[in-house]
Write a structure and sequence with these properties.
mainly alpha, three-stranded antiparallel beta sheet, 9 helices
């Protein structure tokens, strides 16, 4: 793939990725108002898009790096970038399909299920980030082994690349394990379920949604909110919605809003 056609494809799939991310975030925000038919429809469209891209570029050896196999021939620099960019974009869209199925599964989820949905979406994203960090490795490994610039230069660049890559992989593995640990945690890590006496004393009205509390959570600062409301709040914040006391620890970034990282993993 060379010249303007490769450039056009790169722009096109990037635009589709940004639009897909926006669609997923909107569907996640709809909560119980999501429609299974709409989620299924988007899943089919995403699948067809992935299939069409790989079918159209079936001669470009895109599948090798997906399976962590180096290309048969040393790729030119721009072709190596093209292979990595297409695969990096397509695996993110494939992960979006999985997220859409999670939204179907948790369609009517409230309270504990709503929090579990956020944890599952976050786990999918950190698994994806780890896989995406590995994706470019076989392509660049093959590229840096090019002996045209001399064996010493080739060995040095390959060694440096693999050293930096290993550091990045270790960081991604730690984040992945932390997301698995968060999923296995049964209790609410920013508070506990409130008793009926505590809810009555607080007035049984959630300050966020202004409705009767559902599955009320008592924060460490002693304020009480619906589990749905406060779980959504802590997707973005670390402090109490009322007193601004620090409640949630500075742990992993949450992707419970359905978002997907839009930064490209090219190296």
């Amino acid at each position: 793939m060379h010249g303007f056609s490769g450039f056009f494809v790169a722009i096109y799939i990037t635009a589709v990725l940004f639009k897909s991310n926006e669609i997923l975030r909107k569907q996640t925000a709809l909560k119980g108002e999501r429609k299974i038919s709409v989620l299924l429809g988007y899943s089919v469209v995403f699948m067809l898009h992935i299939f069409s891209i790989y079918w159209w570029h079936r001669k470009d050896e895109l599948f090798y790096s997906l399976l962590m196999i180096p290309p048969k021939a040393i790729p030119p620099f721009w072709h190596a970038l093209f292979i990595i960019l297409v695969n990096d974009t397509m695996v993110r869209q494939a992960a979006m399909i999985l997220k859409l199925f999670l939204l179907m599964y948790y369609k009517n989820g409230r309270g504990h299920n709503f929090r579990r949905q956020g944890q599952m979406l976050t786990l999918v994203e950190y698994t994806l980030l780890l896989y995406r960090a590995l994706l470019p490795t076989p392509v660049w490994y093959k590229f840096f082994l090019n002996k045209e610039y001399g064996s010493l230069f080739s060995s040095l660049t390959t060694g440096l690349y693999l050293t930096f890559k290993l550091t990045s992989i270790v960081e991604k593995v730690q984040s992945f394990l932390a997301s698995v640990k968060a999923l296995s945690r049964k209790e609410v890590h920013y508070g506990s379920y409130a008793t009926s006496e505590q809810v009555n004393a607080a007035g049984d009205l959630c300050a966020i949604c202004q409705e009767k509390m559902h599955a009320p959570i008592l924060l460490r600062c002693k304020h009480i909110f619906c589990e749905d409301c406060v779980s959504e709040w802590f997707e973005r914040e670390r402090t109490c919605p009322l007193c601004r006391a620090l409640v949630r620890p500075a742990d992993l970034r949450s992707y419970g809003d359905g978002s997907t990282s839009l930064l490209f993993q090219l190296f």
